[in-house]
Amino acid sequence: MSLRLNRLLLYLPLIVITLFFLLPLYVVVVTSFKSFDEVSLQRMWQLPSGINFDNFRLAWEQLAPHLWNSIKLVVPAALLSSALGSLNGFVLAKWKFPGADIVFPALLFGMFIPYQAVLIPLVQFMRTIDLYGGLPGLILTHVIYGIPITTLTFRNFYAAIPSELIEAARIDGAGMLQTYWNILLPISIPAFVVVLIWQFTAAWNDFLFAVVLTNPSNWPITVALNNMAGSQIIQWNVQMAGAFLAALPTLLVYIFLGRYFLRGMLAGALKG
Amino acid sequence: MRIKRDALLGFLMVLPSIIAIGIFVYGFIGWTGRVSLSNWVGLLPNYEWAGLKNYTNLLFNDPRFMVDIRNTVIFTVLFVLGCLILGLFLAVLLDQGLRGEAFFRSLFLFPMAISFIVTGVVWRWLMNPAQGSRISGLNLLFDRIGLDSLINSWHATPTWGIAAIAIPAIWQMSGYTMALYLGGLRAIPDDLREAARVDGASEVEIYRHVILPLLRPVTLSAMIILGHISLKVFDLIIAVAGKQLALDVPAIYMWTTTFDGQFYGRGAAIAMLLLLSVAILVIPYLYYTIRTEAEL
Question: How far apart are CA B6 and CA A265, in angstroms?
Answer without folding.
Answer: 33
